[in-house]
Design brief:
This protein is mostly helical and 137 residues long. The protein contains 5 helices and no strands. The longest helix is centred in the last third of the chain and has 34 residues. The mean pLDDT is 81.
Length: 137
């Protein structure tokens, strides 16, 4: 008997989101003391001003998972962001006239890419925590 997930293509959006959610759950189960991640630099360039510590990355990854699972983004938030970014809208006008299917596929590929990258970052953060503790997986 097949699992309910077996009927989905291995690259489906549902499975991509599930992989990310599972990686974050594993991270939460492994990282029992998130405070150990404070002031530990992440893998970013030293000159990069947006470089965060591992604790900030930990909190961000959890927040993204919560948002993805509970759909906390409201339409009102989307509307206010659109009114403040008129220059971005002007730059995207050629894409808005494009075929709806092509636009959907463009965003879907982007979502797959982002979710895959976030899953890798989550697993990497878990491994770094184990390294801090002196444990290897």
């Amino acid at each position: 008997m097949q699992s309910p997930e077996a009927k989905f293509n291995r690259n489906s959006l549902f499975l991509t989101l599930k992989r990310y959610s599972s990686a974050v759950s594993d991270m939460e189960k492994t990282i029992l003391l998130p405070s150990l991640l404070r002031d530990v630099p992440s893998d970013c360039e030293a000159a990069d001003e947006t470089c965060r510590d591992l604790y900030a990355n930990y909190m961000m990854l959890k927040a993204i998972r919560n948002t993805a699972e509970s759909s906390l983004v409201t339409l009102d938030d989307h509307k206010t962001k659109n009114t403040t970014t008129t220059t971005t809208t002007k730059a995207l006008e050629p894409f808005l006239d494009a075929d709806s299917e092509a636009l959907f596929l463009f965003h879907l590929r982007g979502l797959f890419s982002v979710m895959s990258d976030l899953t890798k970052k989550t697993r990497s953060l878990t491994e770094k925590y184990l390294d801090i503790l002196g444990l290897t997986n």
